[in-house]
Give the backbone structure.
Amino acid sequence: MKIIIAGAGEVGTYLARMLSREKMDIILMDPNEERLDFSNTSSMEILPVVGNPTSLVDLDEAGIKDADLFVSVTPEETMNITACVLAHSLGARKTVARINNYEYLLPKNKEMFQQLGIDSMIYPEMLAAKEIVTAVRRPWARQYWELFGGAIILIGVKLRENSKLVNKQLLELSSEDKRYHIVAIKRNNKTIIPRGQDKILADDLVFFTTTKEYIEEVRLHAGKEDPEVKKVIIMGGGRIALRASQYLPNHIRVKILETDKRKSHRIAEVVPNNVLIINGDGRDTDLLIQEGIKDAQAFVSLTENSSTNILACLAAKRFGVYKTIALIENLDYIPMAENMDIGTIINKKQIAASHIYQYLLDADVSNVKSLAFANADVAELVARPDSKITRKQVKDLKLPHDMTLGGLIRNGEPMMVNGSEQIQANDHVVVFCLDTAIRKLEDYFN
């Protein structure tokens, strides 16, 4: 597969690095030659091309007519849209544009853009805001995702000594197979796909799949409290904070701390009535106390500095805040944040990557999410008739050790998967795999 990525900024470079591991033909295009200097990263198999993605000549020289996927993720929204329209007209099979305008995602407008040749649009800030709202709604979970429209739930939970699951092998939990399935364990910065003999230890980050009716059982078995979130303090008044405050329920009181006075006045004009804008520095301990940090159940740090966000969340935890959420764009900081028990990590690069993964598989992938904590992917796939996944019972399929089936939808009914189950044609299956195994899915589902 040939993929051309326009924009060698943080998102574009991250995507190129990630996709280069998948043995694809990756071209990274940017008008700034300095951004394309990968001399210090010899392992990256990426062809850098100096060029403007809105130039017909430059697109042609990059080989756009043979591109299976064109992704434009420059900081300029208009450039991304124009580049995708041109790429489509020159022969690119599919195009994806990064945008900053929510209006473009409205159904009436999405159809118009698709007619222009833009197959999908990414608004990372909006997706990040929605993940923040989800984290606030389920403060006891590190990760909470609804798959297949909510039919199957994926939950990541940090287990402590008080969990009834700690020090037990997965074999001992067989009676719970129909209620939830443990699909992965993150331990000491290493992710494992567990088997029956594996034991759950205290401080493991455990990923469960379950159905809505058993979410509460997962919480109880994990030994977690579920405090009602009535007050949220957000540090940093950027686009993510603005969107998150608009999506949060009206009964939750929200305070946004923003250092820039002009920005404070600007966002104060568009936020809901339950949101109060404070012009001040969230790193100021006295200000936090004055604004009621000790009464807050959730603290969200969304500045542009990853280390500042981590330190701010640690300070909030010392004040007794139950749930902390940090925007961490520096991927190297994510393991450190996990070890420091930051409640939920938001990373826009990985959000963008999870969206684009849809276009990388030949199988019928409807949704793929990249897990910030686990270095893993969750894929929703459809089993095609006579595909390898349908030929034997799950226990006899000899699935790779870096892959497991987390659940399925059959005739509209969600269910967990046990070893004696046999996948049927047209079943919708949740697959949990390490990030190096995503391409193996095609062999089983096509």
